[in-house]
Fold this sequence. Notes:
- By secondary structure, the protein is of the alpha+beta class.
- Helix content is 34%, strand content 21%.
- The radius of gyration is 35 Å and the shape is elongated.
- Mean pLDDT is 87; it is low at 1-11 and 38-46.
Amino acid sequence: MPSWCGESAAWPVSSFVLAAFLFLMGKIAYLQLYKGRELAAAAVQERTIRLPVGNFLRGAVLDRMGRTLLDSRICYGVAVFPALLTPSGHSEPALAGDRSGAAAVVCGELFSILPPKYRTPEMVNIFQRALQQGAPFFLPGTVEQEEAAPISRSNIPGVYAVPLVQRYGPNSLARHLVGTVGGSVLSGEVEHGLSGIEAAYDEELAPPETVLNLVALVDGKLKPIPGRDLCISGERGSAVKGKDVVLTLDRRVQEVVERVMDERVVKGAVAVVDVRSGEILAAASRPGYDQKTLVGDQFDRCFSLQHPGSVFKIVVAAAALAEGVVRPEELFHCKGEYSFEQGGGISCWKQDGHGNLSFREAFACSCNPVFVEVALRLGRQKLEYYSRLLGLEERIAGYPPGDWRGGEVRIGSFPGDLGNAALGQDGVRIAPVNLAALAATVARGGVYIRPSLVKGIGDSKGGEFQAIEGPPARRVLPQAVAGELQRMMELAVNSGTGSEASLPGIGCAGKTGSAETGKVDRQGRPIVDAWFVGYAPVDVPQVAVAVFVEGGGSGGNCAARIFREIIDALHRV
């Protein structure tokens, strides 16, 4: 009995211990399985100090081969964490009450190694005011790598040189087309597109999260944990980069075009189109501008509508030959002016006239009276129809956004209106990029391919990539008509107004243009825009090029030479 009673008395104690053990195990399991992540995050939160920064991981703008057009490079922001400031010779961060004294010491140490632009009373005041607020902050502006090195070597606790991305470098290309971004990542603002591709594809280029956090890991005494530098995290975990936009541009072709323009063109544009695919290989405008400061001329002349001058005679010739209102060998007589029955007239650029010449020769010599007569035979409606048929008013596939069109041909109802339109003046305005596409249409035998600019979105180097297919090709001119246009454009270069575009050994074809602007210079002389539109080589055409020089004068003297230099340089690449 006693022994049984003893066992009976011990039972409630062991049951209590077992119940408590099971309760604790359940509690631990609950905390680990259900609350583990939340508690771990809270623990980490208590051991971190965060500095928000705008997400600078914006997608890139690349050429057709995945090469950057931005020339992005690393710059550094100077980040200060007041809670971690420790003057040299001290092993512990300053307490809140002592922080002003420590800050003064650190301020002296830091500003002695900063670049001269920071060593001003204004910058010191900014630094001290920010310290008083206690939250981590960036000093205004950024520093270069060689300027950041002394900051990193100083090992001042609480002061960091943070690598950031400077989006545009000095060798960035296609600046007008690529465009610019706004926003200050140092102020916590994500970059957003303001113009060009940056604005048109802002949603794709922008990173998924607008804000990143620079995180300093500290112990219970707010000392940085040894060996743990600042890390970057998004609000939802790892920082994710925006998508890349891959253009049809070829960086090598773009470099050639911009190099020639920097040497020869003050104001103007050049567009280069791949004859086989219709893709735009280069698009450049001058004057240039700085994408970081926006200083300069941001107007993109490559996609702006301009009077094309006698380049438009390609359209007049194409329509007239296709409609059968003129034959290539038909003879005309140019006496230096075309006189309208209603009165008035249009002069030829050759004051005493060309005399007797065929239509083919009139094209090569760019004879105004002959083309006025042929345009009157053709009529306004037919000329407008063929302008649309040849794609002069169509959009570029992929850019620009909105209701932009590549041209506008709206001819008045009077004979004089049609005569001026035939010479690419009143009622006719076309963008250089669409005139390059016109030359490509002739080069490929009368088949039109709508020019395209964007190949796709995403990772061009093996990752997820969303290709953007261009519209299908369509025949717009009979093969015989296109063949005659090719011969006319070759003749214009070999023995006509485009002789300055001639390049022995390669062979070029094209058409000159000189467009009156109605303006005069300081000496009272008329300001005339220069054009040359053509393709090369003539045997197997590869590229079509439109050259526009604002105020360049004669297309045969100015634009044709630039065309030749570009073709020659591309041939050597």
